[in-house]
Amino acid sequence: MSFYTIQRLSDIQNESDRMLSPIDAYLKCSILTLDFSVKPLESLIPDITHNARIAKERTKQYPVDGLTQDESAAIYLYTMEWKPSKQSLYFYLNNALRAQNRRLLTPYAAYLKLILSGLQKLPSIAENVWSGVEADLSSRYRVGSTIVWWGLNTCVKSPQMLESAEFLSGNGTRTIFTIECRSGKQIRQHSYFPEEDEVLIMPGTLFEVRAETNAAPDLHVIHLKQVESKCPFAPPHPSHMRKPYHNSELENLIHHKASVQFAEFRDKSLNNEDVDIIASELVKNTYWQDLSLCENSIGSVGAASLSKALLTNSTLKQLRLVNNGLGDEGVEYIALALHVNTTLECLYMQGNKISSTGTMKLSVMLKINKSLTYIHLSDNNIGDDGMAALVKGLRLNKTLKHLDLTKNNITNRSAEVIEEIFSQNQTLLFLKLSENLFSNEIIFTLSQTAEQSNTCVYFT
Q: 12-226 and 247-458 share one CATH topology?
């Protein structure tokens, strides 16, 4: 991730918890060209005219997504970085958007009209996005409260982007935001940094603070969920009028199991709507400590429903998802929830078509999760790349004790990184590597090395 994108991510720390009056300065403006839109800013922002010309030149080919060249160039200009950063357009614009004195927005009205016109033509994405700052913002985000972000705030689509910037793996005081957004705008096709998959949160977006956890001594993770807003910058999320789904047999079964500790729904041919029903119960149920959904083929959509429930549930200790075809996308949803969840201890994900891609999501999670002690990943296909990814996560993890990687197509190439576990991780007690592709010589060497560590390794 570039230094400049990190700077835009960090700009979120300038959001306040004040409720401001609506922003309407741009509503009465006509849509102008970029050249005319930035003229009122020439006395405020150094080199704005010069950089606007660069933005127009870089977007002179016919823009994608149905935007005009000027709309695309307005977004491009927003992502450009001045030196120093505090002279950049985004810095001045966001300060004005967050200011209590709405008259400060007047010079920006034409530019706001143009960039928002372009952003509103982009399809809204409804998925989890991420942001982070090198500061402790936890005191501003109390669980259960609602907050408004008034600026145009930058997020990224993958926690791996934050890891590359050392928000997750680094040291020092940090706050990570995991955000369920409904109307984010993916701008990579119109950005100065297209490789960074940037998502913009529209001004005036309203969030509920769903969870906050101290994931490491200096690392705070805050989970936000976008909720309805009447602000003109955040159109209401369309409600789909459809008859509510019911499964009376499943609902009766949930009712009978509502007060048990072990809730089993194995091999019930559950569909996505059924998993939604179970996830809704999981949000409010305080009795379930062990939930089994094995043999149901719930896939990534069902995993997304469970992920949202795990963000708020604080009693479940074991989750069994054996043979469900989660795939890498489904595993990512579960991993996202476990950045925040602090009570789940055991996770069973055998036979879920997980490759090295999904394992990388788990690796990022392991760096900050402080509750998981047991992960069962047998009968997947993580391979040597997945093994290397897990070792990266285990370098920082201090709680995992049992890891089962039976039958995962791991070969002799992984011998060196496995030895790293023995020398660097002091808490992993059991590592199962049966039915992989090791030679007898490598098995002997690894067994000998493991004897000098705290970890018992099994190859049979």
A: no
- Are residues 392 and 418 in contact, defined by beta-carbon separation less than 8 angstroms? no
Q: What is the DSSP letter of 241?
A: -
User: For 247-458, CATH number?
Assistant: 3.80.10.10
Please write the tens of the pLDDT for every residue from 11-70: 889 898 777 777 766 666 788 999 999 999 999 999 999 999 999 999 988 678 899 999
Distant-in-sequence, close-in-space partners of 138: CB < 8 Å, separation ≥ 6? 175, 212, 214, 220, 222
List, as one string, the DSSP characters of 329-348: HHHHHHHHHTTT--S--EEE
CATH code that applies to domain 12-226: 3.90.176.10
* pTM, 2 dp: 0.67
Torsion angle, alpha carbons of 398, 402, 408, 409, to 10:
70
Domain residue ranges of the chain, discontinuous segments joined by +: 12-226, 247-458
CB-based burial label for 232 (10 Å; 0-12, 13-18, 19+) = middle
Closest CA to 119 of 159, 92, 79: 79
Rounded Cα distance, 326 and 50, in Å: 50
Encode pLDDT of 286-311 as tens digits. Answer: 999 999 999 998 988 889 889 888 98
d(CA 59, CA 93): 22
Ranked by mean pLDDT, which of 2-16, 56-70, 311-325 comes out on top?
311-325
